[in-house]
């Protein structure tokens, strides 16, 4: 509760001989306020998934879609994940929320697969605390069984920095997930500190180059060099490359020349709600 958290904050402050400031009050309270709202939001089913297509460059076709969670408040406001995922991460809420996200993404994808889009794969972002739960692999297995989605239609996106927290544990979990029949990609690649020797040991199928590099590939020679190096390294390790944050025709041209496998970004499409994504599929639009 708010009072307990305030007391804890005050005690922590005293023990560290820190000054107890009004700013700390405001921050702790704001966090608690969001936490309580999130708890209600979960019960009231206020979360929605949007889907952003990933396009295969060789064919121009939509081959997969990333599920991105949004919080649709009763007043209509749409809250982006950057605001509430970190709060959920700091509390036990990420457990049920992550489970809901995975289930919703698998259910929706099963519907798309059953209506004839059998080539599609859904990519679900997994947060740190979720991945580190001891029974994470069993949870994924349970969701697949409950929703009836064939594992080949599921991909998990795990950030580079998260994979590096406990390398041996990560390799173990990823191997078990791979054995279930799904595939894994490394999200935000380039922003962490993976060593190449580890990369080789991870049972992953793709690297997603972080949008911060892609943004400047046509204007910043360093970013262009970094992206080229990542793509050729990935290909030498038999990994596919997905570039995120592709916003312009120039970005696209550059990535085509490098023979990057897939792109994702506003140039082709913003994240869409399920209805709009279905329309996109029906339209057959390609790159
Ligand atoms: P991410 O996984 O790296 O997702 C990419 C983010 O970039 C998304 O923001 C997406 O909307 C945005 N984006 C896509 N194309 C472009 C583009 O061309 N230009 C620009 N400037 N941005 C683009 P979003 O949806 O706000 O998500 C932000 C982050 O929140 C995600 O980064 C991911 O780390 C996290 N997140 C989103 N959904 C979930 C979820 O369901 N579970 C977890 N654990 N984390 C999630
Ligand atoms: Mg992602
Ligand atoms: Mg990403
Ligand atoms: Mg990113």
From TrEMBL:
This is Putative PAS/PAC sensor-containing diguanylate cyclase/phosphodiesterase. Residues 31-285 form the EAL domain. It comes from the Bacteria.
């Amino acid at each position: 509760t708010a009072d307990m958290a305030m007391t804890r904050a005050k005690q922590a402050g005293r023990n560290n001989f820190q000054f107890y400031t009004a700013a700390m009050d405001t921050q702790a309270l704001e966090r608690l306020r969001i936490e309580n709202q999130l708890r209600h939001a979960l019960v009231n089913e206020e979360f929605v998934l949007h889907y952003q297509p990933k396009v295969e460059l060789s064919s121009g076709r939509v081959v997969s879609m990333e599920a991105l969670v949004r919080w649709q408040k009763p007043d209509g406001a749409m809250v982006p994940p950057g605001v509430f995922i970190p709060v959920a991460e700091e509390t036990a809420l990420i457990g049920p929320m992550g489970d809901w996200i995975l289930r919703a993404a698998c259910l929706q994808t099963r519907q798309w697969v059953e209506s004839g889009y059998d080539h599609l794969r859904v990519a679900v972002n997994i947060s740190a605390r979720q991945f580190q739960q001891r029974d994470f692999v069993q949870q994924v297995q349970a969701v697949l069984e409950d929703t009836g989605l064939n594992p080949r239609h599921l991909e998990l996106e795990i950030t580079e920095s998260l994979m590096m927290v406990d390398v041996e544990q990560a390799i173990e979990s990823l191997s078990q997930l791979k054995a279930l029949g799904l595939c894994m990609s490394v999200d935000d690649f380039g922003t962490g500190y993976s060593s190449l020797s580890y990369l080789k040991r991870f049972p992953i199928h793709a690297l997603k180059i972080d949008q911060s590099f892609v943004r400047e590939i046509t204007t910043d020679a360093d970013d262009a060099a970094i992206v080229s190096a990542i793509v050729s390294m990935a290909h030498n390790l038999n990994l596919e490359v997905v570039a995120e944050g592709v916003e312009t025709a120039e970005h696209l041209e550059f990535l085509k020349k490098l023979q990057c496998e897939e792109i994702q970004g506003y140039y082709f499409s913003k994240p869409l709600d399920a209805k709009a994504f279905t329309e996109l599929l029906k339209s057959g639009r390609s790159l």
